[in-house]
Amino acid sequence: MEMHQVRYFLALCEERNFTRAANRCGVAQPSLTRAIKQMEAKLGGSLFDRARANTRLTDLGILVRPELKQINRSAAEAKRKAGKFLAARSIKSSQPRAMEAFMRAHHVIAVVAVLVIGLGAKQFLFPPKQADADAVPSASLNVFQMQIDHPNKKDLPAQTMRDMSVVFSESD
Known about the structure:
The protein is mainly α and 172 residues long. The protein has six helices and four strands, in the order αααββαααββ.
């Protein structure tokens, strides 16, 4: 017995008409009839009394209907659980890459912020005059790289920064 036969049987039980059941299942009426006949052959008896006006369940049909309903519900539940499991697994497998990209972006933003604050926005907006550029540095700033707590931190690219000297004129 195959799942499509079970679905066709249940649709025919509700519709009580081969044409409407076939339309409901999205198949041609001869395909539904053939599937029901194959099912009857497997079970060894007729499942439906076929009349022109109305199709009714036989005693065998009445006996197997609850079991076939349970099979259909179980198959739907198994499909739902499999979809949920696979969706959760795909989210988990993409999390490390997404987290790594998030951390790298925020690391770059943090380093730029430290540089801008440490060096002063004035240095970026107003470059020093030639006389100031030749002067001896009077102050220095050490920038330390942030410590990243990540399972793959060995794989992340290391960024080293050297001491940077800044010249501030007294007119500032």
